Amino acid sequence: MTSEVYSTTTAPNPKSSLCLVPSEHLDKPRFLVKVSEVLLSFVAFILEEVVNSCVSCSALYFFEFVSCTAFLFTLLLLILLSTSLHNRVGITCWSNLDFIYTCAIALFFGISSVAFAAQNSGTDLEKSAVAFGFLAMAAFIIDIVLFIKTCGFPLKKGGKQESSNGGPAAMVAQPEAEKLNPPANVTS
């Protein structure tokens, strides 16, 4: 009898979970790729930080900047897109931001990894950092390919017009084909 009186009064809300994957901005495969981007860029950054001396420090510093930036900003983007926090930020073009950021980091990781591979003293630690830099670049390229496969190319010119009220956008107003009734002869 006690169990009937004190039954549960609230139902679980599946949308209240912390992680919202899959969501409109991030599906499960891209979520896993973004996690690997974070981990690979973090390992590349840590390996680079452990290097004691450098032959050409400018390549080392550029690799350090790119790997650290990739780690921090990809982690931030991952947290924003996989939780409801992206709704609280005033950004509405998440797909464009994600695509442009991922392309830029892939490009910079490629450039910095090539530069660091060409200008290092050849220690195993430096070679490992370069290898993780190239692996991180490959993860960012895989993310770009998955993005284009699932969402299409976000920067198309002449695509569909977006509506401001939720309905389909009107292209061009067509002139009316039916003429108005002529005015009736009014006698006074």
TrEMBL record:
Cellular component GO terms, alphabetical: membrane
Entry keywords, A to Z: Membrane, Transmembrane, Transmembrane helix
Keyword Transmembrane among record annotations: yes
UniProt protein name: CKLF like MARVEL transmembrane domain containing 6
Region of interest (Disordered), residue spans: 159-188
PANTHER family xrefs: CKLF-LIKE MARVEL TRANSMEMBRANE DOMAIN-CONTAINING PROTEIN 6, MARVEL-CONTAINING POTENTIAL LIPID RAFT-ASSOCIATED PROTEIN
Regions that span the bilayer: 59-81, 93-117, 129-148
Localization (cell): Membrane
Pfam families, per database record: MARVEL
Entry membrane topology: Multi-pass membrane protein
Major subcellular location class: membrane
Segments forming domain MARVEL: 25-152
